[in-house]
Design brief:
single chain; 5-stranded mixed beta sheet; two-stranded antiparallel ribbon; 3 helices; PB1-like_dom_pln; PB1-like domain-containing protein
């Protein structure tokens, strides 16, 4: 299995509830990075540097799901493993959402 995949990063925005929407984000694509070789804390440091913000909450959305049904928080190593697994099961692609609050 290829250890690299693509993350579509949505940031510089906040979630708006009812229904949940991530309104007007800045989008970037990160490819060809071996995230499997990173620990959860290394990944969070990487993302903080990427979005130039040290105070963030990180979420991902399960593939083929809406934000309402598929949004998951990345808080620990177990969440990080689920995030990676979901991305690889989706052909190596997953959406990441950064909450700057």
């Amino acid at each position: 299995m290829d250890s690299n995949f693509t993350i579509k990063v949505n940031h510089t925005c906040s979630f708006v509830p009812k229904p949940i929407v991530y309104f007007n984000p800045v989008k970037m694509v990160v490819s060809n990075v071996d995230f499997r070789s990173m620990s959860f804390m290394e990944f969070i440091s990487y993302v903080k540097n990427l979005v130039k913000d040290g105070r963030i909450n990180v979420y991902f959305c399960l593939p083929q799901r809406s934000l309402r049904d598929g949004l998951r928080v990345l808080e620990d190593e177990n969440d990080y493993v689920r995030f990676l697994d979901a991305g690889y099961e989706n052909g190596g692609m997953i959406n990441l959402y950064i909450d700057h609050s």
